[in-house]
Each structure stands twice: as structure tokens, then as C-alpha cells.
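Support case: user asked for a sample of complex input and structure output to validate their parser. Sending the pair below.
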Amino acid sequence: MTIRALVWNEFIHEQENDIVRGIYPTGIHQAIAQALTEEDGIVAETATLQEPEHGLTQERLDKTDVLIWWGHKAHGAVDDAVVDRVQQRVAEGMGLIVLHSGHFSKIFRRLMGTPCSLRWREAGERARLWVINRNHPIARGVDTAIELQHSEMYGEPFLVPEPMETVFITWYEGGEVFRSGLTYQRGAGRIFYFEPGHETYPIFHNADIRRVLRNAVRWAYNPAEPWKDVSEAPNRPYDQAREKLTPKGPALHKYGEAGYR
Amino acid sequence: MTIRALVWNEFIHEQENDIVRGIYPTGIHQAIAQALTEEDGIVAETATLQEPEHGLTQERLDKTDVLIWWGHKAHGAVDDAVVDRVQQRVAEGMGLIVLHSGHFSKIFRRLMGTPCSLRWREAGERARLWVINRNHPIARGVDTAIELQHSEMYGEPFLVPEPMETVFITWYEGGEVFRSGLTYQRGAGRIFYFEPGHETYPIFHNADIRRVLRNAVRWAYNPAEPWKDVSEAPNRPYDQAREKLTPKGPALHKYGEAGYR
Amino acid sequence: MTIRALVWNEFIHEQENDIVRGIYPTGIHQAIAQALTEEDGIVAETATLQEPEHGLTQERLDKTDVLIWWGHKAHGAVDDAVVDRVQQRVAEGMGLIVLHSGHFSKIFRRLMGTPCSLRWREAGERARLWVINRNHPIARGVDTAIELQHSEMYGEPFLVPEPMETVFITWYEGGEVFRSGLTYQRGAGRIFYFEPGHETYPIFHNADIRRVLRNAVRWAYNPAEPWKDVSEAPNRPYDQAREKLTPKGPALHKYGEAGYR
Amino acid sequence: MTIRALVWNEFIHEQENDIVRGIYPTGIHQAIAQALTEEDGIVAETATLQEPEHGLTQERLDKTDVLIWWGHKAHGAVDDAVVDRVQQRVAEGMGLIVLHSGHFSKIFRRLMGTPCSLRWREAGERARLWVINRNHPIARGVDTAIELQHSEMYGEPFLVPEPMETVFITWYEGGEVFRSGLTYQRGAGRIFYFEPGHETYPIFHNADIRRVLRNAVRWAYNPAEPWKDVSEAPNRPYDQAREKLTPKGPALHKYGEAGYR
């Protein structure tokens, strides 16, 4: 059983900004893909905004077990049809890991149903991610806390639904806190939001962060067959009911008719 | 303190179908508005799909504490800009009660982030809504269960996120079950999904159903000032940090600059 | 509608320690009771460990809408029979607010089912409670954050179940974080855990803390009739079933017999 | 990686009642242990009430990854010290699966913190367990629903906390519903409550039920090292703080002192 991960990156800062390119010469997606494959059990491909259909064709997504998402300045450039496709695949069972500024991506806001807003500051301050449940699969191998010497501050309130589990909470030098590791279940798919990942610091070269990414991919992986018709609302006529049933009363629909959408 | 409710109805079946018109001569919205005002404390207005902006202008929504939503065959006809507006108002603190076939409305699917699909059958069968927590404010005054002699069957799986609270679960004559009363918190707003309400049966004339609607409006009402900037992600520069902070390391943004969206 | 609050305190430090007595000359319970009654709508009585049955007789609890609990060094001295009684009343619908070191009280550990352990440090450090949902009833009237100049540090991991809602998260000068305001529903009763309250600092004289206590009492209040038989598991024999039912197959119990416990 | 399961049974009905003995000649525990080992990956031992320390010594529990619990008429005979031990092991990461009448066991009530009460009827009626999330690991390989020709009715309200996930809901011939498969996380341990299992029907010989039991054991298994000190509340003195800290203000405890419990 090898998990097929796909790392998506908007891949703009690395081409426009010298600092970011210095840290991630081949792009954040390549650094993350490398992190995922440092141990056995995960294969990782990459896709970027610039590719046709942003590299997220139906065929590609159908072969993806877990999608990782990094985006920042071009959320609006992501095609709605592609977002629809990703959302459907999550409902079918594909895992999704949303990183850092991906909090404002179309796909994350779609799946949360909330503004996904927060407070922020780019001052290179110290951050410390406390592990809330050290035996959670996503925290495996991580010590009591992850220390980051430089980080962008993301502060509460973070406008997301109450999570299934709070895995990390971050302390910031400037005085804020943030729920930095949150899990969600949406349809058959598992979602993990992970806050670290500002592009001007070498976050994705940090060994603990890389370990969390691998753990998260394993956690989000659902080995079940994709639930392809998860969005269908089938009519179950009276003669297919599991209990004997005689129709009564008025009806709007004809026998066996499809419903409205 | 009077709660300002607004009952929205797509108002099509009542104009096209004799059975439905027979039950709700002035529309489902009028029956619900009447139910809400049977006791003191709630004033109710109505709005329908056919009105300009579907009767849901910004000004109207700003004066609404709790919005009730009934739609079925014309979900696609609801303008996306109006859905955006409603979603923002929920995040700000407006309550939302989604009824029956509203499970497939744009606004509900947006707020849930899931397909909101289910199984259904229109055979006029018996249904019984069991009260899970009889001391929940929404169940106030309701006995152990609500009996419906005729109902449309809505069956599990119901593709919604795990709720904050399960308030009702329905038993159907044909052998199915359904989580028929579910609460959610999204931003500052409370949401209640309530399954009963098929248009060819006089569901909204049932005293228990009417009581639940009133209870739900009271429960969903948030007396706090609307959180108008709930969707903003403000920059909190280093010199506004609550702890003394000296910027360090490289930065992408200039001092005080707005973030990307 | 006036809410009947009862403030329970083990009342030991105030009698043994000069510093604590200096801050709370008549006991922490009196300071809290005073805070609760600063606005209309709440009446507050007090009870302490030293009274017969710790002041928590059945009669007293039956007249209590919301119980507030402060304990620290004498958790073990609280009689199990009294704890049973309080637990039953919470299931029936009495609200419960557990403060600070009450995390290790018998009643809180009973209701959570987990160790309720945490990390701590008594160094008088600065603490800042960030409001996660500013429109939550418990946060009403509180600004973005509550600043405490001196506090005991309580650090994660905090071994409690995932809450219904995270209302506050605290930042500590020494580098830790803590989920400091958490809500739970247990049976018909609402529970709020609130972290501040170390006895050597004047926490309960702070206006914001006092406001949160009043808010929490209002939030935890359930106006429904107490669910007196909430712990019963009644037999519903076949001839009382809502659907016609013919018994079949072997049975262990005689008709109408009570179940085992 | 082989999961070490331990099946606990009070083992009384099988010795006292001919019907039950006829179905489970060597005890319910043996039938379950056999079910668990029908596929590779799980080894199963058994323990019963009658053994010294009910077969649940510290040493035994320390070697157990997942404990399965069946009890009915002798909940009160289970020693509190053994219950303490099991509860601590769950907090450390041991999985726990509670079956049927185990809803009233000491260990389940302890972990839930609620009355765990329900309604019941022994009339051999038909029951149907609907799968809520067919891609949940616990539902793997199960069709849309599990049909039971004879079952004891367990009806709502079921007085447990809102679960992490609702995996099954049961429909009963007599008109009731029940949340029959519920997951919880408590400390590092995962808990699954599964309703089927009345002793006078051959429930544990049903292939679907046996599959769910195996699935549940795999789901509840936490491969992480046991969190042995999960219940400790260590003092973290100022000079061990991760941020430089100067103590200030009055203190109750001496430097490095242990806290109260």
C-alpha cells in the first residue's frame, strides 16, 4: 500500500521574489514532495497553478489519495470548475492538507463554509507549536512542541468551524495564539489545516514540520474505494423500501422520478 | 427584545400545483410566519424568489435576526450574489433555519461544505421524530416524539458535517432513519437544519412543528452586535503587538500593507 | 426569571494563608457571589467544604440553577455521595462552572471522563486570554482579549475531551498556551471550564473576569424543568410500542420487568 | 504489526441460562475472540469477571492494545480499582470497544461522564443499522445497512455526550431509533460504543457484526507508545520555561514543589 500524494503550489513567489527563490529554488511544492518521500510508503507528484487545469485534471485527481495545497497571492486565479472537482473528490474520500496562507484558498473556504479569516503579522518572530494530543497520529515522533525561530504570526480569532480535533496550538513572541493544527471530516474525506509555511522562512526545511506533513498524509489517507456517487440523492420508491409499504396521500413526483437540485 | 425573523420561500409549488395550493393558499412562507408569531417575542416578515434580489437586499438582511429558508425546485435560480450576502450575514451572527428540501439549497451547501445529499421517497408514510435531548431549547414543550401521519422519507446517509448537537432523529415506516434536527455554529451565526416540511402534506400546520420553529428562532437569535468585519484579515504590524517585538528576518510585505485574498 | 446561582468554595487557603486572606478577606466564594450579583438577573448564595454535606444537600441543589466550583488542595475531602448528587443534577439540567484548580476536582474529572491533567507554574507571569468567538454569549462585552498582569501558568496538553466550543485560549509570558474557556454539554446540563482564578492574585476582582462569570451563569442556565428521571432506563414492553409489535424469539426478561444496572 | 485484543465478558448468562448457553456454549467472549481472529492482524485473548482481578491485572492491560467489553447483570460486581486501571489505560492510548448492555458498565459511565441511560424492550423485533459514513474505517466492507432479524430494542434518548462521529443509527420494528455506533476520543485512547449484542439472539455469529468488531479493533488501535504519565500535572518552574522569565508577585507553592490533587 503506497499512498499517492499530490502537492499543489501556486508557484508565484518563488519566481518573483529573490528571497523566496533562495529558500525554495525549485518551488515550495518540490520541497514538500521531497519531505513526503523521505520515508517509504508515500509517492508524491506536484502540480502548479500555471499548468493546464492547474495540473488538477479529473484523471489526475482520481489517482490522488491525498492532496496538499499551498497558495497565497493568486487564490482568485484558481478556476471554479477545478475547485468543484477537488471538493467532490474530498467528499468521495480524498484527503486534503491545507497549508498556511491556503486558509484563504477557494477550496478551504468552500469546505469550511466560514470566512476563514485571521489576524497576521510578518515580523519574523519566534513561534512554538504545542502538541495537544501527543499520541495523535499527526503528532507522531514530534516532541512536546515545535520551535520555529522565524515565523509569520497568524492570530485568533480564526474563523473556522469547531474542529474534530485540535492537534496543535501556537504561541507567538508578539503575544498571540493560534489553533495551528486542526482536523475535519467532510463526507468521506479527511482534512488537516496546518498553519506553518510562510514563504520567506525555511519552514518546509524544518525536520519536525516535514515529519508532521508525512504523518498528516498517512492520517488523511482513506483506503476505501472512492464514494463516487456521494453527491447523488436517489429516489427510493415504495416498492424498494426495506419494510413493506403502501403509498398513501398526495404526491408531487411521479413514481421513480428524479428529484430537483 | 423582539426577534426579527424573515421567512424566505421560493414560492413555486403553491402557484403551480393544486394540492400544494390547497394546503398553503397564501404560500408556505405565510404559514410559517404565522406559526412564528403565535406567541410574543417574534415578528416575522416574508420574502420570495420572485421579488427583486429575491427580497433579500443588504438592507433587509441587516435588519434580520433569524432567516428561515424553504426551497425545492429552483435552488439554481437563486442568485450567487444573494447567497454570498446571506452567508456573510450568518458569519456576522444572523441565525439561519433551513427546512426540508432546503438541504440542497445553495446557502446550505455553502455553509456545510459537503454534498448535503440524502435518499428520499414520496409515499406519504408515517414518520416519528424522536427528541434526543428533551431539555434542549429547540425541543422545549415537545413530548418524547413528534408523530407525522404523512411525510416524505429522507434517509441516511445525509452528507453533512458532524453537527454540534443532534436534536431529533426520525424513524420512517418504510425502514429508514434520518438525523432530522441538527445544529451548527458557523462564525457568529447559529444554524438549525430541520427535516420536516414536504409541500404536499400539511406539516407546517402541525402544532409541534410550529412550536419547534418558534423554539429554533429563539435559539438561533444572537443578541450581540453583528460582527461586521468577521471576514477581514487585518495586518497587525509589529509596533501594535501586545508584547514588545523587534522585527527580524526577511519579509514579503511592506509595513502595514494589506494581505492577499 | 431570576437565575439562582450557588458558589462553592473549599475555603481553606483564605483561612491558612495571609496573602490569600489579604486578597479575599471573606473568601473567594464571597468575591464571586458579589461579581454575579453586580447586575440584575442573578441571585447568588454560597457553600463551603466545611458545612454539613459541604453545603450541597439535595434540597439545596434542587433549588440551584447554576453551580460555580472553586477547589484546590482538598479535592479528596469532598464526599463521593455529594459528587454523585452534583453529577446527577448536571445531567438533569443544572449548569456548572468549574474554575481554575477545579480542573482536578472530583466532579470535573467525573464529568469529563479524562485525567484533566495539565502543566503549571506559579511565577506571577503575564497572561492574555484571546476571545475565539467574540459573539459567543460567554464573551459578551469582553474586548479582543483579557489581560492579566499576574497569573499562574496552566499549560497544554490539557487532558479533557474535545469541547463543544473553544471560547478562550491563553498566551503566557513563559511561552505556553492553554485552552482556557471550554464548553461542554452533559445530559441536559451545560458546563463551562474557565482557567483564571489563582488564589494569590486578585483575579476575581478583575472586571472582565467578573463579566465572564456573569455571562457564563446566564449561558449555563437551562430554564427547562429538571429532567429528574434522566438516569433511568425504563422497559418499554411490546404492547406500549408506537408501532404494532408481536413479540418473537427467546427472551431473558419477564414482561415489564426492570433491567439490570 | 499484530494488534493485541482482549475480550472481557462477565460470563454469567451463559452459565445460568439455557438459551444463552445454547447460542454461546463457551461464552460470548469466545465467540467474539473467534470473530476477531478470522482475519490476520489481530490476536485475541479473553478475560472474565470470575478470574482474579477479573483477569484485568496491570500487567495484562499493559500488554493490551484494544479491550472489548461485554457486561450486563453484574456491573456492580466489577471492582473499582480495576475500573480505575482500565480508565487510566484508555487515557494512555489503549482502545476500548463497549458492546450492548455495557452502556451501563462502570467503565463506560466513567469515560462518558453521563448517565448512559436509554429505553429498552426485549421482543425479538427486527432492527436495521444504517451506515452513516460508508467510508469510515469501522464500516469497511459493510453494505448500506446491517439487518438483524431479532434484536433487543435500545431507544433514544441515549444519555451520552455528543460523539466524535456517528457511524451507525438503528431503525426498530417497534418504532424507535438509536445511535448504535458512536466514536469518542478520551486522552490518547479511542472508544467505540456498538449497540448490538443481546445475549438471547445469535448476534455475534452474524458476519456483518463480526466484520464491524474487527474493523473497530483496527480503528481503535493506537500504535504510539503508551502515554504513561498522561494523568500527571508536573510543575514547570520558571527557570525551565521556554521563554526567559523572572518570577514576580506572591506565590503559594515553593520552587519545584508538587501540586495538590
